[in-house]
Every structure is written in C-alpha cells, then in structure tokens.
Amino acid sequence: MTLFSSLHVIYIIRYVSVGESGDVELFYYFVKSERNQDKDPLMIWLTGGPGCSSLCGFLFANGPLAFKGDDYNGTLPPLELTSFSWTKVANILYLESPPGSGYSYAKTRHASETSDTKQIHQIDQFLRSWFVDHPEFISNPFYVGGDSYSGKIVPGVVQHISLGNEKGLTPLINIQQGYVLGNPAVLRNLESNHKVSFAHRMGLISDELYESLERNCGGKFFNVDPSNAKCSNGLQAYHQCISEIYKEHILLPNCKVDYVLAGISQTLPNIRTSRRRELKESSRNDPKEASGNDPSSLPPPSCFTYRYFLSAFWANDENVRRALGVKKIYKDLCQYDDICNYQGKNF
Fold first, then answer.
1. Which PANTHER family is this protein grouped with (predicted)?
2. 8 Å CB contact between 310 and 302
3. Does residue 183 sit in helix, strand or coil?
4. Closest of 42, 38, 102 to residue 311, by C-alpha
C-alpha cells in the first residue's frame, strides 16, 4: 500500500474482531515511533464523541499527518508530515471505537448496540488480541489516552486492563500508572462552571463582570435559578462576550460555517460543530459528484474547520478506502441505532 509510504510513515492498518462471537470489527491505524519502536512507549488513543473517527486524532490532534489546507480543487486532498506528532517518541494505536465509528462496524443489529461499559470491554478484547498478533510490543510501557467524551472511557479501560491482568488474562499488558486525557468530558456541571473562570483568566471577560457573576451566582453558572435575575443577566452578558470566540480553540478565527450547510450532500461533512467528524457508514456516491462539492461553498482554507471538509472528501474517496482495506460488507447499519455515527451522518 502506498497511501502513506511516500510520507515515510511506518504504519499498520487493519481490522480486529471482538464482541460476543466476533461480530464487531474494529478498525485501527498503528503508527510506529520514529525514535525507537522497540523501547518507546505504546499508547492507544481513543477519540471522543462517542462515535468520532480516530482519524480526528490521527489528522487533527497528535498524529504524524495533516492536510495541507490548500484550496480544494476536486482531487484527493494532499497530506503532509507534521512537526509535532507524538509518534516521534511513541508508538500509537488509533482505534475506531465503538462500532459505527469511522470504518468500524457491527455485523448484526444486536452487536451494533453499545454502551460505555460494552465499549470498555471491547477495547480490552481488542488490545489482548492485538498483542497476540504483535508480541514484539508486549514489553513496551503501555498507556491509554484520549480526548473529549473519552474522558469517560479511558479511566474505565485502564481499570479493566489492570483487573484483567490481576485475574491472569493473557497476554499480560504492561499497563503503566495513570492515563492521558485532553479536554475530557467528565462532570458536566463542573466543566460548565469552570468555563466562566477560564474565560476570565484568558481575558475574554472583564474583572468587573467576573466578580459580579461570582457574587450574584455564588460560583454556580449551570442550571441557574431563573428567579435569580442578577445572575441570569450576568450570564447573558457573559455569553454575549464570548459569542464571537471559537470555543474549540480561542486563538483561532471563529469562522461562520453554518451557511455552507445548505446544498451540502450527505456524503460530505456536517460541521455545524467540530464534533461532526465521523465517517459515513455507506458512501456509494462519489464525493466529487456531489452537488455540495462547489469549492465556493466551502469556508476559506484559513479556517481550521476547512480541514473537516477535506477529511470527508479524503476518507470517503473509494481509492482511499481500497488502499486502507476498508471492508465493503457493512451498509445501512445506522438504521438500528441513532447513536451510530451521530445518526449516521458523516465525518
């Protein structure tokens, strides 16, 4: 396969069967460390959602590749090496989990039903199966990491692996203490409250407004009592102050992209929020033939969200899928469950 070879990335891309009777096929990308793959740590990276493709981590977070961000011309969007990849010092598994995320799929309706507990168990199954096939990495220090909704999954995976090791499950996984989480979803009330203090520390709201909110809301900015007019008015002013900020990354421009949704085909990305990053399970149409594929309808390349469009063109390209070994067996599974890829939408 030459999809990444010209970029000098050492990788493995495959499916692993898990579930009660092997009725779930989990897709993964494995990138070997650029430094010392035999001794460097091994990490599994779990993208949030739930249901987001691991291509998000691979292409937008800590992976070795990224889109060039050139103007889209209807051809396959080009990739380039990044200078900040964690794979410079670690081996990383990017796993598409649960089934319905990215190219992963379930073979039956029952297998497509998922939960946090079921996902955690399947990830443990995946890892022990993977280590059987790749025993050369069994002694590497192993870590679990993720972002967003994976804040609820990663700690459970670490615990599940540790308990499995204690019970003598094989192969034993060299799990290390702790885990890695980026911007994790943990406790909604706590996270919502901290947004106000974060906005203040970043200079997005004034000292006067922050002190007023603390005084009138008592430090509680979530599910506010509607009869508390002073607190409600203060929060209204707070939301007005941050309304033009790109909340995913306050240093990046806040591109207004909702307007491009009109006329965008379902084979292309819905990026009303940056979380619409999953792969559509069935993409029979050529994205380049879609009516929404007018470059003039895309956000400018200077917008970070522009790369989400490129990722959908890239990941839904039949040549890419063929090169990655994506199986054609799955189709229309999202009719079973609305959790599947955010109601079966695309990247």
1. SERINE CARBOXYPEPTIDASE-LIKE 19, SERINE PROTEASE FAMILY S10 SERINE CARBOXYPEPTIDASE
2. no
3. strand
4. 102
Q: Which long-range contacts (CB under 8 A, 24 or more apart) does 298-304 make?
A: 298/72, 298/260, 299/255, 299/257, 299/260, 300/255, 301/69, 301/70, 301/71, 302/253, 302/255, 303/253, 303/255, 303/257, 304/246, 304/248, 304/249, 304/252, 304/255, 304/274
Kindly write down the DSSP assignment for every residue of 52-88, as one continuous string: --THHIIIIISSSEEE--PPP-SSPPPEEE-SS-GGG
Q: List 145's β-bridge partners, or say none.
A: 45, 180
Cβ count within 10 A of residue 264: 21
Looking at the whole model, is its pTM more than 0.85?
Answer: no
The one-letter code for the residue type at 65 is L
Residue 160: C-alpha distances to residues 18, 48, 117, 140, 144 (Å): 16, 18, 10, 19, 12
Cα(153)–Cα(168) distance, integer angstroms: 23
Alpha-helical runs (H) found in 153-278:
154-166, 188-201, 207-217, 229-242
Q: What tens digit of pLDDT does each residue of 316-340 get?
A: 899 999 999 999 764 433 333 333 3
Number of Cβ within a 10 Å radius of residue 129: 16
State which residues of the chain have pLDDT below 50.
Answer: 1, 258-293, 330-347
Tell me if 79 sits within 8 A of 68, measured CB to CB: yes
